[in-house]
Amino acid sequence: MDIETGADRPKVSERQMSAISLGRITADHPAFRDCDDVTKAFILSELVKVDTNND
After folding, report:
1. Which residue in 14, 20, 22, 41 has a CA-CA distance of 20 to 30 Å to 48?
2. pTM of the model
């Protein structure tokens, strides 16, 4: 699964080498489907702190 979009990853030959844009992950991400609002808010606030490329 693609970290940013939750979509299936493309084949290896089609992938681009780049940093993960943690700042683009939102509460609508499929990984948060079963999380309550407090948990989502906590995780997203922590991701902002570790988003070293600030995008």
Report:
1. 14
2. 0.54
